[in-house]
Amino acid sequence: GAPSQLMRRVVIGRAYYAAFHAARGALREQGMSAADTHFHRQVWGNFRETGGPETAEGAARREIAEVRQWLHRERTRADYDEWASWSRRECRDVVREARALIDRIEALP
């Protein structure tokens, strides 16, 4: 029902922000600061643009960027699409993917 969909929206948003904060923290450890108003783009863009195309780290960063795009789309739907809904399983999948994304971020050198 409606209350469960509202809670699923909250869970999806929190899953996205958990991954975002993990990414931001990892970049801060490397000396990056995201000071302007577009810090989401700065943080996630760093994963898409760094590491070199032919290195294992570059491939891992691109994979992080791709999963992030999907997770961000789900978060945007949860925030702005009043008709969107998720099954319990779909919501669990979002949380599982966010957790896996955090693990990938934490595994980077």
Computed CA radius of gyration, to the nearest angstrom: 15 Å
Distance between the termini: 44 Å
Number of strands: 0
The residue fraction in helices comes out at over 70%
Mean pLDDT: 85
Order of helices and strands: HHHH
Biggest beta sheet attributes? none
Contiguous runs where pLDDT drops below 50 for at least 5 residues: none
Instruction: Bin the strand percentage.
Output: under 5%
Q: Helix- and strand-based class?
A: mainly alpha
Number of helices: 4
Outline: elongated
Could you outline the blueprint of secondary structure elements for this entry?
Layout: H1 2-29, H2 39-49, H3 56-80, H4 88-107
Helix pairs in contact: 1-2, 1-3, 1-4, 2-3, 3-4
Compact description:
The chain is mainly α and 109 residues long. It is built from four helices and no strands.
Describe this structure in words.
The protein has helices at residues 2-29, 39-49, 56-80, 88-107. With 109 residues, it is an all-alpha fold. The longest helix has 28 residues, at 2-29. The chain starts with a helix and ends with a helix. The mean pLDDT is 85.
Using brief descriptors, characterize the structure shown.
109 residues; mainly alpha; 4 helices; 0% strand; elongated
